[in-house]
Predict the 3D structure of the following.
Amino acid sequence: MAAGNVWPSSETASEYAIKAAFLFNIIKYAEWAPGSPLSDPSKPIVVAIVGDDPFGSALDDAVRDRTVRGRRVLVVHAANLKSVKQAHVAFISSSEASRAGDAISALNSRSTLTVGDTEAAAQALVMVNFVVVQGRVRFDVNQAQARRNGIELSSQLLKLARYVHEAGGLP
């Protein structure tokens, strides 16, 4: 097993397969502001997993041979924040929980859609945070944080969220 990779147990495999599908669909409902460094429609949409990879092959499988608005989706693995160059979307792994605030602040300054699945990520104002409620994967959205960073999330996506926060952090 390569350093930095975490292979999910069979119990978490289905959870992360669901989160991977959600993540792909969230990308479909996100728009980056014109003129942002990430708005070039000729380049692929880059999704970075920052820290240990809890998805196994689920995220790669979810985006394989699929496009969003004519752009292919490319998954990259970043051992740490310094490894993330021009990502459109960054999933902050639980292995980065102690550094979530710094990671999210730096990524927000680059207009990167930040996604997590930990309390630390939610407290650090990640834009989308996955939660498991009664055995089901749900997500919360910090719409205010996304808008501050030039990312507009579709009302269709917001209807599916457990919570949408127009101001402040996630619960």
User: Anything to note?
Assistant: The longest helix spans residues 10-28.
